[in-house]
Amino acid sequence: VQVQGMTGNIQFDTYGRRTNYTIDVYEMKAAGSRKAGYWNEYERYVPALDQLPSNDTSSVENRTIVVTTILVS
C-alpha cells in the first residue's frame, strides 16, 4: 500500500510497519503550537534549528500521543 496522506507518503513494509516517511513534530501549548522538529525512520527525532532548551513544563513532553492512519477504500 502506498498513498499520499496529510503527513506525506504513507507506505508499509511486508510486516505492516510504516516506511519511507518524514513527519513534522509540533510542540503544543495553551498559547498555540510550533514546529519542534521532525521524525523519520532513519534519523529518528531531529529538533528544529531554533529549538532552545526550556524550563517550561506546560508542553506535552513525556506524554504519549497516538497518531492513527486510516485507509478508506
UniProtKB/TrEMBL annotation:
Gene3D superfamilies according to UniProt: 3.40.50.2300
Taxonomic superkingdom: Eukaryota
SUPFAM superfamilies recorded: Periplasmic binding protein-like I
Lineage: Eukaryota, Metazoa, Chordata, Craniata, Vertebrata
InterPro entries given in the database record: Peripla_BP_I (IPR028082)
Protein name: GRIA3 protein
